[in-house]
Amino acid sequence: MYGAEQIIPGTIIAGSELEPIEGYVCIHRGVITEVEEERTHSKNIIAPCFVNAHTHLGDSVFKDPPLGKVSGYRTQKDLDALVKPPDGLKHRILRETPYKTLIECMRKSLLDMIETGTCAFADFREGGVVGVSALNKALEGLKLHPMILGRPAEPELPLPVVMAEVRRILLHSSGLGISGANDLDLELLESIAACTRQYRKFFAIHAGEKDASDIEEALSLEPDLLIHLTNATKRDLEYVADAKIPVVVCPRSNLITGAGMPPIAEMLEAGIRVAAGTDNVMLNSVNMFAEMEFMSKVFSIDDRQVFKICTLNGSFVMGPDSTGSIQKGNKANLMILNGSSNNLAGIKNPISGITRRARPDDILSVLHS
């Protein structure tokens, strides 16, 4: 390093196709100025940072919920009792949590994201304007690119009252993130979606997590992003692909809640842009290495595609400031891994090695721009 410039040697997971090349990444003031292919003796592996495209960071106040028997939550009734608004267990706990405690707990998860190689995240923020404010407060001074998607705190109130809060939320957030089409009145959902578009903000919604009954209604709202689609049919996926709506999958969460496994291979075959998230902090850590390893070993998907789902595809959902491929002109949101660590030493294919077995303790450094 000299002046404001850094030159980092190693095996670079480069470009939009994530091709491993040996060489140097040159960075000036947070921007990649050159990617030079050249022989080095470095064991570094230089990779794009993760994008955690779906979280519920408020759940950081409640990290050890009762999971029932070993199989966990295996019925819709059980899952609703845990997470369905307004009276699911997590929502009752969030209402009882002091504002200061909520901020402190969320900040811990944000710091955990940074330490585990994530540079951007999208959060479905419960609690209305207050919930959005708490996350903005927790983010102060941290180099993370957030997409904060709020939601009304009391959607059962009269429509004009709810919509007044929605407009306040939109002034302080990236948009709206709704729990599901079965959880709210359709007239309210249509008003929320229309208002979000009027403010030129982002509208996202859960769909097809527990069953397929809410998918058609969710699609009728013309969302910018869908979460889960665990129980989507082939016809559903074709519609989503034609509408060019990206989908975020959360396989570890779906496993523990008994929702099933998202049809990721079928989504990709249909031409859907798929990203990944860790979902509820009460059920899973924000560690994207764990999400990536799980996905690579459970689904019949190429390792390179899994890595892309957890990095570059998330940046497509969240915009170019979140992260991007390692190429000239892009922001330097990178993680530098120790290719000679006890865990990674001896891997032959850096993509497969990172995807299947890398851990946070393999990280030497994380650069956020």
Automatic annotation (TrEMBL):
It comes from Methanosarcina thermophila (strain ATCC 43570 / DSM 1825 / OCM 12 / VKM B-1830 / TM-1). It comes from the Archaea. InterPro entries: Amidohydro-rel, Metal-dep_hydrolase_composite, Metal_Hydrolase, MTA/SAH_deaminase. One of its GO terms (molecular function) is diaminohydroxyphosphoribosylaminopyrimidine deaminase activity. Keywords: Hydrolase. Gene3D superfamilies: Metal-dependent hydrolases, Urease, subunit C, domain 1. Residues 45-357 form the Amidohydrolase-related domain. This is Pyrimidine deaminase archaeal predicted. It is an enzyme of class 3 (hydrolase). PANTHER family: AMINOHYDROLASE SSNA-RELATED (PTHR43794), CHLOROHYDROLASE FAMILY PROTEIN (PTHR43794:SF5). Its EC number is 3.5.4.26.
